Amino acid sequence: MSADGYIDDASPERLRLSSAADWDRVDAVRAGCDAILVGAGTIRADDPRLLIRSARRRELRAGRGQPPDLTKVTLTWSGDLDPGARFFTTGESPKLVYAPSATAARLTSTLDGVAEVIDAGDPFALEAMLGDLTGRGVRRLMVEGGGGLHTLFLTSGVVDELQLVVAPFFIGDPSAPRFVRSGVFPQSPDRPMRLAEVTRIGDLALLRYLVGGSRG
User: Fold this and answer.
1) What domains sit in the chain, N to C, each tagged with a CATH number?
2) pLDDT at 212
3) pTM to 2 decimals?
4) For the residues 30-57, what does the mean pLDDT come to?
């Protein structure tokens, strides 16, 4: 995020907040996870592939008996997803889409052949989604955003660790998306997170927090 807490600006083009060195670090973090989660809005806006880029890291995963790529996960309330998005068309690992009951029923035919659609209750229940992922063998889930997902997971108290990279500039536009939205966060002044690591990545700063009071 920027120094004032934004993850993008308000222009049509995606703002580059990171660096090549930090993207390599992110790739290493991905390689240590079982699944990666982004919101439907991120798929629509950024069309990410969410693959592990390093051939060596892919080989190491295969050597450990893991698939070269992570299981891809998204959740959607509206069901507005394009089956031609790179989320669905790249990588050999499963693609899972969680949605409220009514949306899941409509979305199943739209994504037939490219993803498995899972009914996560009516209303949508985060615990149902996490329980289903656990049953599929997902032990470490990487949540990459956007801001709505960050807010949902942090306010629900299900986060173990937060890796926050701060860019050395400001956005200053209240219409731009922020790292989190409004909410009631258990990570409060009375229950602060614990700073486990500070790392310099060029002019970026990585802050790694352990989130006290999370349920794992």
Assistant:
1) 20-210 (3.40.430.10)
2) 63
3) 0.93
4) 96
C-alpha angle 131-133-185 in degrees, rounded to nearest 5: 65
pLDDT tens string 52-95: 999 999 999 999 999 999 999 999 999 999 999 999 999 999 99
Quote the CA–CA distance of 126 and 128 in Å, as a whole number.
5
Alpha-carbon distances of 210 from 48, 139, 142, rounded to whole Å: 27, 17, 14
User: What is the overall mean pLDDT for the chain?
Assistant: 95
Instruction: For residue 181, give both structure tokens.
Output: 């939205």
d(CA 90, CA 50) in angstroms, rounded, equals 8
CB-CB neighbours of 15 under 10 Å? 17
Q: Tell me the CA distances in angstroms from 33 to 26, 37, 46, 57, 117, one per residue in order.
A: 11, 11, 21, 12, 22
Residue 137: C-alpha distances to residues 70, 71, 118, 131, 133 (Å)? 12, 10, 16, 10, 7
- Residue 80, SS3 per DSSP: coil
Phi–psi pair at 173, nearest 5 degrees? -120, 110
